[in-house]
């Protein structure tokens, strides 16, 4: 009997979801299963259909900046619940959950680094943190990034990904629209370039403030960019919207953005653009961006 139990084949135990290796990601556009290592090497752009997957702030930094060059500036300012806001749950509870998930105080990461050797100040919004909503901390960190760039004679690049102003902070959130726009004036006064990179999605008060007042506005392919959503607009005006409305390519055609650039080309593209704006010899830019940069200079 003992020998029978010894030689009996054991059924393999099924692993729980937490134990399974995270090897694959499904493309939200073409539904193709993508090997994560291949996806990372391709800057998180689907190699099958070209769809640009959303990135968290740290991955965006890794894609844009030279390896090992990033020095963080943000992280010392923490959000507060000044209004004691409660909807289906307390705002403080939402913040704590988002902070644990993202590993940072709020929906923004700022710092300095280099792009092909060019030193820049960089601010990246994190859509994974409460939809990248702009509250008091996001506005403060962007203002500080602009002030840091002006104080150190550096160009500023802001990468946006946001659903707009954070409703839990009410008017305090809306005040950040004016605050960030005024802070960016310091760069204009010193003749320093500010480049805005719009990613999916960039909407609401972010679009209506610092995201669209840059010297050069670049968008990722297919990015949703606007103030109100297309469904709200359609219900308001009671008209059918044109195909591709509020997508990056539509906005390029109608003059709201200066160029639409594949994420895999961002680092080289921005380096060449900075070369034009800073009057440094660089490789040639595409015609549309060169004309915009020279006009701004």
UniProtKB/TrEMBL annotation:
InterPro entries: AcCoA_carboxyl_beta, Acetyl_CoA_COase_Trfase_b_su, ClpP/crotonase-like_dom_sf, COA_CT_N, Znf-ACC. The gene is accD. This is Acetyl-coenzyme A carboxylase carboxyl transferase subunit beta. The keyword Transferase applies. It is an enzyme of class 2 (transferase). Keywords: ATP-binding, Cytoplasm, Fatty acid biosynthesis, Fatty acid metabolism, Ligase, Lipid biosynthesis, Lipid metabolism, Metal-binding, Nucleotide-binding, Transferase, Zinc, Zinc-finger. Binds 1 zinc ion per subunit. It comes from Deinococcus navajonensis. It comes from the Bacteria. Acetyl-CoA carboxylase is a heterohexamer composed of biotin carboxyl carrier protein (AccB), biotin carboxylase (AccC) and two subunits each of ACCase subunit alpha (AccA) and ACCase subunit beta (AccD). Belongs to the AccD/PCCB family. It catalyses: N(6)-carboxybiotinyl-L-lysyl-[protein] + acetyl-CoA = N(6)-biotinyl-L-lysyl-[protein] + malonyl-CoA.
């Amino acid at each position: 009997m003992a020998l029978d139990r010894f030689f009996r084949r054991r059924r393999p135990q099924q692993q729980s979801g937490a134990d399974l290796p995270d090897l694959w990601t499904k493309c939200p556009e073409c539904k193709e299963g993508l090997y994560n290592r291949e996806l990372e090497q391709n800057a998180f752009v689907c190699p099958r259909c070209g769809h640009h997957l959303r990135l968290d702030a740290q991955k965006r930094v890794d894609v844009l900046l030279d390896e090992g060059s990033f020095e963080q500036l943000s992280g010392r300012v923490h959000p507060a619940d000044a209004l004691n806001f409660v909807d289906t749950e307390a705002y403080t509870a939402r913040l704590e959950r988002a902070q644990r998930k993202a590993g940072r105080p709020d929906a923004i990461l700022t710092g300095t680094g280099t792009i092909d050797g060019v030193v820049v100040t960089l601010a990246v919004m994190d859509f994974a943190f409460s939809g990248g909503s702009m509250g008091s901390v996001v506005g403060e960190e962007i203002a500080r990034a602009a002030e840091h760039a002006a104080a150190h004679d550096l160009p500023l690049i802001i990468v946006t990904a946001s659903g707009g102003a954070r409703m839990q902070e009410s008017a305090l959130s809306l005040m950040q629209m004016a605050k960030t726009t005024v802070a960016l004036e310091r760069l204009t006064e010193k003749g320093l370039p500010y480049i805005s990179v719009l990613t999916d999605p960039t909407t609401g008060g972010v679009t209506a403030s610092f995201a669209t007042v840059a010297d050069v506005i670049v968008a990722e392919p297919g990015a949703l960019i606007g103030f109100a959503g297309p469904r709200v607009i359609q219900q308001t005006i009671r008209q059918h919207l044109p195909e591709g409305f509020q997508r990056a390519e539509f906005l390029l055609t109608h003059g709201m953005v200066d160029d639409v650039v594949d994420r895999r080309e961002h680092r080289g593209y921005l380096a060449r653009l900075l070369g034009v704006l800073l009057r440094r010899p660089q490789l040639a830019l595409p015609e549309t961006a060169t004309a915009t940069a020279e006009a701004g200079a």
